[in-house]
Design a protein that fits this description.
With about 325 residues, this protein is α/β, with parallel strands linked by helices. Helices cover about 35% and strands about 15% of the residues. Strand 11, helix 11 and strand 12 form a beta-alpha-beta unit.
């Protein structure tokens, strides 16, 4: 089977090469998948894409026309793929659902600690030989109330980590985890209660139709002036325009994120020379109480190894004519 890997990054290619034990014919392009680059897939039976690639209906139709029949994602999220169209056309689509929930949860904690203890400012100061402790005052995490929105693979790990810090945990999920209730004394409640009661709120839910702009003006109005919001899920769960307004008004204490709602064309590339045109993102980055990283939470050796392994597990199943356990179906979709 010939496979074209879109959005191939130099750091991930060695992991993919090592995982290719089935001698699948693998080819790489650094280009992201879109309506123009889809034509690069001529002659390929399968493609591998990342979360920033565009697999909308028009792109899928082009891919089908040039002979592509299989799509494997190197990510857990698949909101960039129009699954209904893919199934209608006849594509087989699979993701990498459990590559390393620890990597994501640990990055959320890293953002929290860096923000709370002013690590970024401190490092900048000492590199300028400024060893003053002015403006470096933080808070103990012990005893704080933390709200975890979504207690699935990643969220449950985040619960355990924050429980280890000695925090009181509130959680919101459609399916409460009884083990977390027993082991970590988690109290499940509403999202509104979390917004109004928690010092720290961490988002660990997929981007679905129902969750789009879940955190908006109404939710920010419920939060306290010291509330810190953390997002390592998907950017569009938070409405950036409302977030900027909330930060401007001092409605919340800060925002730590690894994602942004309009990453396409900005993230996964170096824009330092030409700059960016997104005014909402520029405004967000100007706030001193915002910490943003470039969608790097998944970037651990263990995670990349697991992503590569799952990618070839999916491809091997299809090459043998059997269904992979990671295949995405319409039953997963909200609409």
């Amino acid at each position: 089977m010939k496979v074209l890997v879109f959005s191939a990054k130099d750091y991930e290619v060695p992991f993919l090469e090592r995982a290719n034990t089935k001698n699948i014919s693998l080819h790489y392009t650094k280009d992201a998948l879109d309506s123009q680059t889809a034509l690069q897939a001529v002659g390929y039976k399968a493609i591998s894409i990342f979360s920033g690639d565009d697999a909308s209906s028009i792109v899928l139709e082009k891919l089908w026309d040039v002979g592509v029949r299989y799509i494997t994602l190197r990510s857990a999220g698949f909101n960039n793929v129009r699954i209904k169209t893919a199934r209608r056309l006849g594509f087989k689509v699979a993701n990498a659902p459990n590559y390393s929930p620890h990597a994501i949860a640990e990055h959320a904690v890293a953002l929290l600690l860096a923000f709370n203890r002013n690590i970024i400012s401190a490092v900048k100061d000492v590199h300028e030989y400024n060893f003053s402790q002015a403006n470096l005052l933080g808070h103990n995490l012990h005893g704080k109330t933390v709200g975890i929105v979504g207690t699935g693979r990643v969220g449950s790990i985040m619960v355990k980590i924050m429980h280890g810090f000695g925090c009181t945990i509130l959680a919101c999920d459609l399916e409460p985890d009884e083990d977390l209730i027993e082991l970590c004394q988690v109290r499940y409640t509403t999202l509104e209660d979390i917004c109004s009661s928690c010092d720290i709120i961490s988002l660990h839910i997929p981007l679905t139709y129902e969750n789009y702009y879940l955190i908006n003006k109404e939710k920010f109005a419920l939060m306290q002036p010291n509330t810190l919001l953390i997002n390592t899920s998907r950017g569009a769960i938070v409405k950036t325009e409302d977030l900027n307004e909330s930060l401007e008004k001092g409605q919340i204490g800060g925002y730590c994120t690894d994602v942004y709602e309009k990453e396409k064309g900005i993230f996964f590339r170096d824009n330092s020379k030409e700059g960016i045109a997104d005014e909402q993102l520029k405004k967000l980055l100007n706030f001193t109480n915002v910490l943003l990283t470039p969608h790097q939470a998944f970037m651990t050796h263990e995670a990349l190894k697991n992503i590569a392994h799952t990618t070839f597990e999916n491809l091997d199943c299809w090459a043998r004519g059997v269904e992979t356990k990671n295949e995405l179906g319409l039953e997963l979709l909200p609409t």
